[in-house]
Give the backbone structure.
Amino acid sequence: MALDKYGIAKRIAQEVKDGYYVNLGIGIPTLVANYIPSDIQVMLQSENGLLGMGAFPTKDKVDPDMINAGKQTVTTIDGAALFNSAESFAMIRSGKIDLTILGAMEVSEQGDIANWKIPGKMVKGMGGAMDLVASARNIIVAMQHTSKDGQSKLLKTCSLPLTGLHCVKKVFSDLGVFDILPEGGFKLLERAPGVSVEEIIQATEGKLIVEGIIPEMIIH
Amino acid sequence: MALDKYGIAKRIAQEVKDGYYVNLGIGIPTLVANYIPSDIQVMLQSENGLLGMGAFPTKDKVDPDMINAGKQTVTTIDGAALFNSAESFAMIRSGKIDLTILGAMEVSEQGDIANWKIPGKMVKGMGGAMDLVASARNIIVAMQHTSKDGQSKLLKTCSLPLTGLHCVKKVFSDLGVFDILPEGGFKLLERAPGVSVEEIIQATEGKLIVEGIIPEMIIH
Amino acid sequence: MINKTVQHVDEAIRDIHDGATIMFGGFGLCGIPENCIAALQKKGIKNLTCISNNAGVDGFGLGLLLATRQIKKMISSYVGENHEFEKQLLSGELDVELIPQGTLAERIRAGGAGIPAFYTPAGYGTEIANEKEVRVFDGKPHLLEHWLRADFSIVKAWKGDTAGNLIFKGTARNFNPMMATAGNITIAEVEELVPAGELDPNEIHTPGIFVTRIFKGNHYEKRIENLTTL
Amino acid sequence: MINKTVQHVDEAIRDIHDGATIMFGGFGLCGIPENCIAALQKKGIKNLTCISNNAGVDGFGLGLLLATRQIKKMISSYVGENHEFEKQLLSGELDVELIPQGTLAERIRAGGAGIPAFYTPAGYGTEIANEKEVRVFDGKPHLLEHWLRADFSIVKAWKGDTAGNLIFKGTARNFNPMMATAGNITIAEVEELVPAGELDPNEIHTPGIFVTRIFKGNHYEKRIENLTTL
């Protein structure tokens, strides 16, 4: 059965390693924070100017001057630092973030990503997404594999306006986990529990590479 | 009689207005701080990262972590701020300094300045001088009018390697005060006490403009 | 000491005029100059070009100036929380220029640092790159981006002193420090205004040289956009 | 918490190798990493390219590494306080590249900010402009300048925590914060090292993400170059 958004977040949490600095996009990526194992130490960066983001506050600790990039009230952990928006993106552009987790509307087999604009719909803006995808060393995407009407979102080329070129390293969808190869193509690494390779082939428009036995993912 | 360096500094101090942010170069400019009238309020910027430089410390207040751009121990005044070198030159380049006072080896009638390098001699470096002259809105120069062997230092064109082009607005020498006109030329504004216009004409190689009666400068 | 204090918000914004370009500090509703926004609404000046990471929400923040149709153009990275905004945009009353957040921050920082242009990788290969110069450094394409400056910058700080020095609090810092450097006239409203000499020079985020006028703001509402608690 | 602490200076500099490019924080002798400089002298590695605003004095600061001929090239804005320097320069043993101080600071800041190049007016019309691209913005000519990065950056702070966060003191801040961002490996020596959580996040000058290793330095001499008193 395909994963729900919590399942995707749980699986992605396994990619977060001890000592990582991590930037989490809005949506499923934000959920990942809830599933990071408690025995590893991670610093979450929020691009509005906070390194060392903690949990949501308890009611009595809410501070309107302390929010994350999703405009949610948050707390800080020990070792946190505050800085301005220029310094925040200085950090991002200079490649200091070990792992960047973003949502996407479409990803291409070349690692292009589209996640900010749908022609004909109200455009809300790209926020920090274009800066993140242009500079982060290690970008992984959390997304639904297909649209509600069954169209694949893992494509040969993106149909929506791009956020960035050749930048996505790995995709975690509700159906599986995929490496994006340097030469192009989605290499299937893991299947969601109960999802068959055939279902994934059906749901993937872009070049899919399936080699050998594909294990079912293990979600702790 | 020509002014000594203290006289030049005293005369320049009259150019400093209430509320000014001022950057003082090394040498005579540094002396200017001693003669700023006590009834006006001025913020001195030191490009190593201090705005609001105060007097030298008393012996018991010396702090090796508090120096000016001349590497002298200093104090801060109320309202001072500390910042890093990039922020310091951000301030300078964005034209926030009201008055910049520099020493010079040569100045041309076009407002070019040479104050960092003598071919054949050990080159110490330009420090922050090139940044200052390229960006400051209001640059005045404190200098000797002639070299020890009597050569003019107010020239048609500088012979020494330049620090900056078309940037000096006013020159205060031991002989007089000069506007540098936008179309070129040193316009004589004031004579040093007891110095004649003829002496100044003799000592000036660049185009000198003398119109009407030239008053003797008044030094408080 | 140089004293930048003014007594009232109306004095602080006295020369902001129709057609002005204004930077507003803040990220979402966090760290926005609430007093100045309210006073600008009251003053009723029109045709403003506003540079702000976001555009407020209906009825708060820059949403107030949108409601009264005082804004002609928004320059932002994300404007999605505002129905009035959407309505005016679709009707063609409002112009909007969207800029990647890091590029927006860096362009404003450049404006305040006397750097007229710089190269950044953000936006290469996207429609943001249209008509922009592309240049390759170390094998990677970059876009040429120009500084942003404004007639007025309006920032909100936590503490300030009469010399104009500012200290921000928490993530309310965001765009405020860069904007403070990039206005021809910079107006700072602060929660707490102290005499020069009371702030530790080592803890100041914005040196007073960048601030033209400072005043103590009142009645901060600090509305929370997404209240999330455990 | 992420812990960047190492116990000893020799562990902090363990991988600095012959031929490395190293940034050293400090302005004159103020805010220089005294412990690391002494350890590098002891270690004896050679052919270093050093990026530092100044070159120390005879017998202190980078003058120590000049005395032992460990430096191949200096990249600085002002190097005038050092006879050993002058001797080696005149004999051709030492190479020097002089950069205007503001350009040096901005190039290092750009290195740490992922900005490969920018335009600045400093140096236009001088020999510094030789072979540099000139571009006119708003009628004023500017030079294209490229970022500076280094294999190692060595900075000195006042207080630091185990997560690598740094606070500098007085004018000992100078080039240290930008250099901290521009090293592939950044080593921080601090006068006081505290557990993460003890520094106020709002007062931190350099976020720990930029620091690879941190250790508590000892026996700071803090030699004064020009003692001036009333």
Summary: Chain A touches chain C through 52 residues (CB under 8 Å).
